[in-house]
């Protein structure tokens, strides 16, 4: 785990070429942020206990469907009450509690660039970019289905911003690559255009196994070395209510077997796939999550898992999902309490249900981020670029979100508080008729005294208007294009690159993965 | 103080006219919100103590300038170390501490409509609209200097939204009314277009005395009745560093004498009028505030005062004020700790430094609101419509802010948590193959289960696009015009109205107030 801020590595330059200042030279350095604040906890200890107890009752009396033969067999061997006809599994509460004891409270994930190691758990927090959007949008080209070019562009932004700590699922689905081989090209792009911790989808055996093999190659590890440490992660969603699907369970078990992290994220929309009450939706989220955690601890005791929380509400007029609502904020904070009750890292999201990078998108995102971070989320998905309930990745929103993420990180830094910081000498020097611009106290500190934004325009109205009265989304449009222009891929050993390319070529020749999942 | 939500009064209709649903019929009811969450406290108890101690040292060793003869005389009578040449006053720490004991921790303010009574202190919180902007802007007419029409329009919005609890300073300065009589027409408009608690400026004797007289008339009170309860408030800013100006001190003392509330808000921009460190800027804010609170408690023991916090930072590149920054968030939360240390209600703001109602304005506002509310602010100024560091009132931003304010209020409501809310029966009924839309558990709750937004568009992209792909700021533009169209002034006894008009006419005939302050 990397503590504190790190110096950015010197950029490689062609000999004789002058150093030009880049747009992101002033961003916050790479760092592992940590919460200074205690989390907001809307539930009493009794209420946390009540959700726990009711979840166990759901697992004991109703059960969870596991649509996966291997999972059913494992759980039968573990002594659970398995019905192979309905595929329903009922769990004894003592079993669930024992399994939970095996999961680590905190762990690190090490990508191919060890300097970009991250930690999940405790007070550490991390952001990942928008994932799994079928569409991409920007103000020049509008909304369109994703392709590899857009996919790569979003990876480049994810690499360029230090406030993006891990590379989550595909930021946009590159639909111009055939589904059978898409994962090969996509993981190759992730491993070459970024050097951060990557995610792989759990969509059947081949995809997750290929991804693990490529991450192993990318880091130059033996099988044993790969399995002895967490290098990557997968995410699975339950098929709420009360059901886990085959391909996700398969991928999760394969990742767990090899010691890689699994984020278990029930998608419990209150009023649709879960009870309309927050207490009920969180109870269901909890039951679905605990059942899968129990399974994965049976697959490998100590498997690194993350308590995923994706509870939100629907618009009761239309049934449309809503995000960044007061319900969402509370669901995030309540989920944090449950995760801490189980001593597990937890995952939240920066979500919204808006169709453009406009004011609604920003307040929904700001509230979502507030819910997740004030709730102490360790892993925050979709932190940059998510729009439209996840149906679009927005280039401009990506830039805007990164400005917000940086500010959230910065606000958790220590507040300088020496005797001299209290400023008596400065006040005495300046007195009632002066100002502090020229004071020694100011001059010795001003360069690093305050957060320096990337996108904000703080000029007065007249100067702003003279410069074209550019609104923030248009500035974000110019920003993302400049960042893409300036992008340089992180260094990668050419032998490793060749090995990755050879692996992709071989697996493409073999036909990749089945597409009938 | 009004607890919980109240039914909106039936609207008056012309006989035979059909009731038409208005845009704001679905807004949250009038209520006194209360924080469910504990405040975020970045400072340790020792650090709070250190700021307190250092502030007292500033007051003892450096002192504060009081540019007001009467204030100097009072403080001399109180035994303070007054220098009438420099107008500097040094305070003994025991005196400050004794004076602080006299100020109430919590009080109510009762406007002419007693149903709109509000409470300041403890866990109660309230929002007031943008105040003191010289300009107004909307998307149809752009930015222009304020006039009475715009002033009245902003008052109407302030009255229409239940999430605006008090009418702060002039939302925009009506420059088409001569400064000598502006306060008379403005207070008249406040008292007739709204029925909420109003503010009056402290700009010399006549303005505040006229305002108090008009509020007394508006509520139909005798002098004794007026003075026995808090009905209105004024706000004063120190002339940082370490200085209180004549007209503000004069107004504050006059309000205190008559038992009306005074909000004391040092304007301590770190790096400009205060030390560049947050610890130093808060220390200075604290010293300036405590000195004035001590004076007002000498004027009238038990005078209702509010600890005002307006510490933010400047952009060190340009010297321009910045708001909604990480420093601002922390300054708000730190101020909350100081106010609670002194057992005083405290004031924060929803501030930003943006020139248009765009993404930056929203994230700066969202962070400002988060700082103020997570810090437990009781009185939140500029909560709706502030743009451009206070130089403009924006009609669209007003609407957008009210959506955010409603969500903040709603998120602090109790989370339903009965046994039935935990949803076991619903999960059992729905099972793993159903959904919860039709469940009894949902049907019996869905109408009030979730926050219902006024401005959000949650339609899917295709429907949104078909309907014209309207961005939020354009929806806000349509909203504010519709709300103004639908506006009905609150009921006012015609005898009181006549008395107010007569008072205004008399004072206008007398020439109003001097303009050479």
Helix content of chain A: 40-55%
Kindly name the structural category of chain A.
Answer: alpha/beta
- Mean pLDDT of chain A equals 95
Counting DSSP E segments of at least 2 residues, the number of strands of chain A comes to 21
**Oligomeric status of the shown chains?**
homodimer
C-alpha Rg of chain A (nearest Å): 24 Å
- Please state the overall shape of chain A, judged from the principal axes of the Cα atoms: globular
The span between the termini of chain A is 37 Å
Q: Largest interface, with Cβ-Cβ < 8 Å?
A: A-B, 116 and 117 residues
Describe this structure in words.
2 copies of one chain form a homodimer. By secondary structure, the first copy, chain A, is of the alpha/beta class. Helices cover 42% and strands 13% of the residues of chain A. Chain A contains 18 helices and 21 strands. Chain A has helices spanning 45-62, 69-77, 93-102, 148-160, 182-193, 205-218, 223-227, 246-257, 278-299, 326-341, 359-374, 395-411, 424-430, 440-443, 446-449, 461-466, 472-486, 494-509, and strands at 64-66, 81-83, 88-90, 106-109, 118-121, 126-127, 135-138, 142-145, 166-167, 197-199, 232-236, 243-244, 261-264, 269-270, 305-308, 312-314, 321-322, 346-349, 379-381, 386-387, 392-394. In chain A, the strands form 5 sheets. An 8-stranded parallel beta sheet of chain A has the order 6-19-18-15-13-11-10-9. A 4-stranded mixed beta sheet of chain A has the order 2-3-1-12. Chain A has a 4-stranded mixed beta sheet with strand order 8-7-21-20. The longest helix of chain A is centred in the middle third of the chain and has 22 residues, at 278-299. Chain A is globular. The two termini of chain A are 37 Å apart. Mean pLDDT of chain A is 95; it is low at 1-17. The interface between A and B is large, with 116 and 117 residues.
């Amino acid at each position: 785990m990397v503590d504190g801020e790190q110096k950015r590595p010197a950029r490689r330059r062609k000999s004789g070429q002058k150093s030009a200042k880049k747009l992101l030279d002033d961003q916050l350095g790479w760092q592992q942020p940590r919460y200074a604040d205690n989390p907001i906890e809307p539930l009493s200890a009794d209420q946390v206990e009540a959700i726990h107890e009711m979840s166990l009752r759901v697992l004991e009396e109703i059960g969870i469907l596991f649509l996966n033969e291997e999972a059913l067999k494992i759980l039968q061997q573990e002594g659970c009450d398995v019905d192979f006809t309905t595929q329903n599994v009922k769990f004894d509460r003592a079993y669930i509690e024992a399994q939970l004891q095996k999961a680590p409270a905190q762990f690190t994930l090490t990508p191919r660039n060890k300097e970009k190691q991250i930690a999940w758990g405790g007070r550490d927090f991390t952001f990942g970019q928008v994932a799994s959007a079928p569409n991409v949008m920007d103000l020049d080209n509008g909304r369109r289905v994703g392709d590899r070019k857009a996919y790569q562009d979003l990876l480049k932004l994810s690499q360029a911003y230090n406030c993006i700590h891990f590379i989550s699922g595909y930021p946009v689905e590159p639909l111009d690559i055939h589904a059978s081989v898409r994962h090969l090209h996509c993981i190759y792009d992730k491993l070459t255009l970024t050097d951060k911790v990557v995610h792989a989808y759990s969509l059947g055996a081949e995809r997750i196994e290929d991804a693990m093999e490529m991450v192993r190659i990318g880091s130059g590890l033996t099988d044993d070395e790969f399995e002895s440490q967490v290098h990557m992660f997968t995410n699975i969603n339950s098929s709420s209510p009360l059901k886990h699907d085959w391909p996700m369970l398969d991928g999760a078990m394969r990742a767990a077997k090899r010691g890689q992290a699994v984020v278990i994220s029930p998608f419990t929309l209150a009023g649709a796939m879960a009870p309309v009450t927050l207490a009920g939706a969180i109870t269901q989220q909890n039951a679905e999550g605990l059942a899968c955690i129990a399974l994965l601890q049976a697959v490998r005791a100590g498997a690194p898992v993350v308590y995923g929380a994706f509870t939100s509400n629907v618009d009761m007029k239309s049934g449309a999902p809503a995000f960044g609502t007061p319900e969402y904020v509370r669901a995030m904070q309540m989920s944090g309490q449950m995760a801490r009750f189980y001593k597990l890292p937890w995952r939240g999201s920066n979500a919204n249900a808006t169709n453009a990078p406009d004011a609604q998108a920003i307040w929904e995102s700001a509230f979502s981020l507030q819910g997740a971070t004030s709730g102490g989320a360790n892993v925050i998905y979709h932190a940059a670029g998510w729009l439209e309930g996840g149906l679009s990745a927005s280039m401009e929103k990506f830039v805007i979100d990164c400005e917000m993420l940086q500010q959230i990180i910065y606000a958790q830094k220590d507040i300088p508080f020496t005797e001299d910081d209290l400023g008596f000498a400065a006040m005495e020097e300046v007195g009632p008729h002066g100002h502090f611009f020229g004071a020694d106290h100011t001059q010795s500190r001003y360069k690093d005294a305050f957060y320096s934004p990337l996108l904000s325009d703080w000029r007065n109205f007249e100067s702003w208007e003279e410069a074209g009265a550019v609104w923030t989304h248009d500035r974000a449009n110019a920003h993302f294009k400049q960042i893409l222009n300036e992008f340089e891929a992180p260094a990668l050993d050419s032998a490793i690159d060749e090995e990755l390319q050879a692996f992709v070529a071989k697996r493409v020749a073999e036909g990749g993965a089945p597409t009938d999942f």
